[in-house]
Fold each of these.
Amino acid sequence: MPANPKLNSTTEGNVDNASTDIDINSSIDADVASDKADIDTDDGISGDDEDELTDSEAAMSAENDESPEEDIGKKINQLRLAKGYSQRKLAKLSGLTNTSISSIERNKVSPAVNTLKAILAVLGSDLTTFFSDEWKEPKARVVVTPKDLLELSEPSSRVSLRQVYNCSTTKNLGFLIEVYQPNSSTEEKIAHEGEEIGTVIEGKILIRIDETTYLLNQGDSYVIDTIRPHTFINPTDGVTRIVSAHTPTTY
C-alpha cells in the first residue's frame, strides 16, 4: 500500500496563552508477522539449483520425520534405495526433476496423486499398497534368484544391466550382470558418483573414458572412476558379458 504523504502544517493564530505548531505528519511503522503457508504443488519446485542429497543424507532426513503425512518421503526413499536407484535415475524414469525427487523425499513438498503414481510405477508399487496399513520395509534376502534381478536399462536398449537386488536399504556395494548385444553400446558419456570394477567373462568390450579408448578381451578386468564420462561399446558381431561391482549402490 502506498505510504501516506507527509504534510507539514503550522497553525498560527490568536489562541489563548500559546501558539501551537501542529505536525499532522504521522509516520506509522508496524511490523506485521504473517504465517507462511506451504503450498503443495508439483510446479512449485523450479530449476535444478538445489544440490541432490547423498543417499545417506536423504535416508537420515527421511528417518527423522514422524508425522503420518511425512511418511510419504520416507517410504519413497526406502523404495528407491531398495531398487538401487539414485535420485537422478528415479527423476529421469518418472519424468520429474532431480530437485522434485529430493524435495519429496525430504518432505518439503507433498506430491500430487498423479506424480506419486508415476514415482510408484517406477519403483514397482502402487497407491493401494503404498498407503496400506500392511506396508512394511522390504526385508533383505540372502539368496537372489534370476527372477529377482532388476533390469536397469530401458526396455528398448540392446544392453542389459541387471542388478543383484536383495531388498536391503543399507547395502554398500552394487553388483551388475551385464549383457551387450552385437554392435551395441551404453549411453554416450555416462558419469555418476563412485567407482566401478568389472571383468569381461565373454567377448570383447571397448571402454571410452574421456577421449581415450581401451579394448578388453575375455578375462580382462577394469577399474574406473565413474565420475569421468565413459561409454561401453561392444564392437563385435558376438555377445559380450561382464560382471561388475560399483559404489555407491545406486546407479
Amino acid sequence: MNGTLEAEVEALWERSEGGLTAAEVGTDERATIEAFLDALEAGEIRAAEERDGEWQANEWVKRGVLLTFGLSTTEPREYGGVTYYDVLPLRRTDDLAERGTRNTPDGTVIRRGAYVGGDAILMSPAFVNIGAHVGDGTLVDSCDTVGSCAQIGNNVKIGANTLIGGVLEPVENTPVIVEEGVSLGAGCRVTSGFVVGAGSVVAENTLLSPRIPIYDLVEEEIRYGELPPERRAFTRFVESSLGEHDLFPGGAYKPAVVALDIEASTVEATEREEALRS
C-alpha cells in the first residue's frame, strides 16, 4: 500500500512542480492527500526513519506534507465554538482513548497528519504539528510545541514550555529527532534537525541546535548537530571570537552545551511519577 501511496505522492509532486494549483485539485488528487494524512496518523509512514544506525529523511513523505499545504485552500473551520481559518482541520482524537492516550481540553491542538502513540499524555496548552510522530508513553507537557515532521521516540519526557522545531525544507534534510527515553527539562529548544540520543537527560533552558557546539567530555571531542546517547547535558557559555568592543568592556561569550556521563541519581530524579499513569 505504501509503495502505491509513495508513487501517487511523487506523481502529484511532479504535477505540482509543473504548475498544478489548489484550485485545480479534483477528487482523485484530494483522495491521495487524504490517504497520505491517514497513513501519517496511523504511523504507517514517517518523515524520517533510522537505517543502519543513522536517521534519514523520507523525502517523499516530506514532499507529501508540502503538497498538503500547497494544494489545499484556506477554509473556515470550527473548534470549541470558535471559527478559525486554515488549510488543515485538526486531527480526530477518538482513536486515542482505546490506546490509553489522553489529552487535556482547552488548548491541546493535534493537527491533521500527526501521529500520537499509545499510553501518551498531552497536557494543554500543547501543539503537535503535521508529520510529527510522538511515541508510546511520551509526555508532552503544557506549552510544548512539537514541530512539523519532528520524530519523538517512546517514553520521552518533554518538560513544560519546550520547543521541538520543525524541518520541512529542504526535503532531504532530516527533521528534529528525540530518541527514546530522553528527558528534556522545561524551557528547552531543539531545532534544525538536531538529534538527541536515547536515554539522555537535558537540563532546563538548554538550546540544542547544529550551530551550537556540544563539548562531549565523555569522548573528549566537540560535536555539532547531535547529543550522543546516555548523556547529561546543560548550557555553559564560552569565549567567542569577538573581542572588546566600544559598546561593552571585555570580550563576548557565546552559548555552548556540555555533555557528561549520565549518573544513576540523574536518571532517578527524572523518572516520571506513577501517579501520572493513574
